[in-house]
Design goal:
The chain has about 80 residues and is an all-alpha fold. It has one domain. The N and C termini lie far apart (about 50 Å).
Length: about 80
C-alpha cells in the first residue's frame, strides 16, 4: 500500500503541475510573438536602409544587413527576449 506521505505529496504535486504547464506554454507563445515583431521591425529597418531600391553593390548589402541586425537586437532587448 502507498504510505500517507506519498499520497500527500501526490495530492500537492498534481495540482501544481496542472497549473504550471499552461503558464509555460503561454510564455513560449509570447516569446514567439515578440520574436516575430522584432523580425518585422528588422525587415522594415533594412528596407529603409536601401536608398533608391535594391542594389547589387556589396557595400549597400552590408549596410542593409547591419541596419536589420541592429534593429533586431534593439527590439529583442526591449522585449526582454534573447537576441
Amino acid at each position: 500500500m502507498l504510505s500517507i506521505r506519498t499520497l500527500f505529496v501526490g495530492a500537492l504535486l498534481v495540482p501544481f503541475l496542472a497549473t504550471s504547464l499552461p503558464a509555460q506554454t503561454a510564455k513560449k507563445m509570447d516569446a514567439k510573438s515578440a520574436r516575430a515583431e522584432c523580425f518585422r521591425q528588422a525587415n522594415a529597418a533594412a528596407d529603409k536602409a536601401t536608398f533608391g531600391g535594391a542594389s547589387a553593390d556589396p557595400a549597400a548589402a552590408t549596410e542593409r544587413n547591419a541596419a536589420g541586425a541592429a534593429a533586431y537586437t534593439q527590439c529583442a532587448r526591449k522585449m526582454g527576449i534573447r537576441p
